[in-house]
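Researcher: Please predict.
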Amino acid sequence: MKPEDVCDHICKLAKKGLTPSQIGVTLRDSFGVPQVKNVTGNHILRILKTNGLAANLPEDLYYLIKKAVSIRKHLDKNRKDKDAKFRLILVESRIHRLARCQLLDETMGPLLSLLSKRAELNETYAATLEEIEGFFVHLRLKLLTLPVSSQLQSIVHGDMEMSQLAPATRQASTYILEISQLEKQCFEAYFELRHQQEALRTLLSKLADAFYQPRAEEVLACDSIESLREIADCLQMDVLEPHRLRSDVSVLGVVYRLHKDVQEKLIYRVEMYIREEIKGSILYERSPDLQDQEWMAEPDAAMGQSRRGWYPTLPRTLSILAPAKIYRVLEMSTFQGLAQEAVDLCMRSLKEASEYLSRRSLPSCDASLQAFQPLVQMMDSQLFLVKHLLLLREQVSAFECELVVSEKYFNFANVWEALNLKLPDGILGILKPTVYHAEVDSKKDIESELKAACEALITNITAHITQPLAAVNTKIGNFLATSGGERSSLKDQSFMQSEELRDVISGFLANVKAKVPFTAAHIRLYLAMPPGGARNEYLGLWVLSPKPILWKPVEMRLVDTWGRLEGLLEHRESQKSNHSFRSCRPLCSWWKHGCVFFPEVMEQPWESIVQMVSQASWH
């Protein structure tokens, strides 16, 4: 039998309504097995598809048929395989159910379409259609609930690590969106969409609940800020944002609801972190110096080598402000409030630590170094504050957002005054509390605190170095104030005698030679980076040039303090021929030494700097 004849016979039989299996039986009975032994079921299906006579099978039904054929081929070779026989029974039963459903679709389609058209004309038709839709949804939920729940549980399970929670949530969200979209398409295949279709809403809401309830419990149980941030970021960037412009996506609202729940839990955990780790930070009993700090390496070692030696509240604050953290997943106003609170509490903790450093008692040291201990206390306190405020400012200035919070409060003073005066009720009704508006700008607060800390450091360094000269200048000023500015009798005062002045100038020069190098070493130890260490990008220009920023004002004040005394000395020398007084003039060469002490120390080896500071700070 020729292939052309086989094709013609198959097409004729298909047009009569015979199925592929019936066509095969008819050909075998009509022409005999030898004539049609090469005409298999796949051959008949290909011919029918080529001529447009193949049945329009659903994809799932076609897949089950192929699976049943594969199992039958396996059983032909392994007839004793009981598991394969059982699987074949299950697959064939599902094929029969889907075939009946397909037949029902072909027969019920016109009826459902007619009911939809007449539903607006008569309530009976509408009620009948709603009952059919409800029954369909009931069957679909009965079929889907267990498989969907099992699949979601396999994606996100209790033994999962926190680091895997975000990608698992993204996968579960994508899965439930796909399932809901497919179920909506399945519903549309049987029923026409109408406004306020309760059955479809019930179907989608049940699927959404199967996704939302377990995920909400997981979010409530999660206390990791990093995990919550990753979940919020995944939901926003990978799920909500790609479907933002698609209005036909079902169950997207429940994903948005979950995203809001994650944001709320993240805000709560950040607030708790700020209150516990920053506001609740307890000062260490041991002074937070540069070499004797327990928190120098341990608490924040994971923050990186460049942050080693920072006071604990600073890296904790910066972890909140980091752009890769919660900045991307929260609304700008919410983030500004959290950041402003964290920065304010951080500044308060830094100021408290600085005050603690200024009050702490230093260990005993050699008698020759005891004079340096007040200077050590002052410089530790002020340089600690300057360094950390500078770090905080450099990090905050990198943000595009403004850390400004508006505050409103009521003033009831006028109301209480009116009540005390016992005014009539009509007048009392006119009186209202005054509303005041105030803005808290954390960036400006950091700048003002940093400026005040630098001014205090410069003033205190100058006072420690010029202490003998400052005392003499104070005595001179008090005398001139009481004598009406009469300078002629100033030369007769005891503090203006040559021996007294020589001791004062000698003490001043001794301070310059001893305290200027120590001050330079202290500044370098706090603000400069050690050789071979990681460059501290947070300190900016301060690392490279602390001299013009901190030391230049000290030099100018030293010159001013000396200049006032030198002017009086020159005035008196011009009126007095006592050569013993001129012996004080060679001591005025202090500037040649003082101007080079600071840069010399800044060039010394790092080990020498550490040893110089440690001798006066620790025994």
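Model: The longest strand covers residues 404-411.
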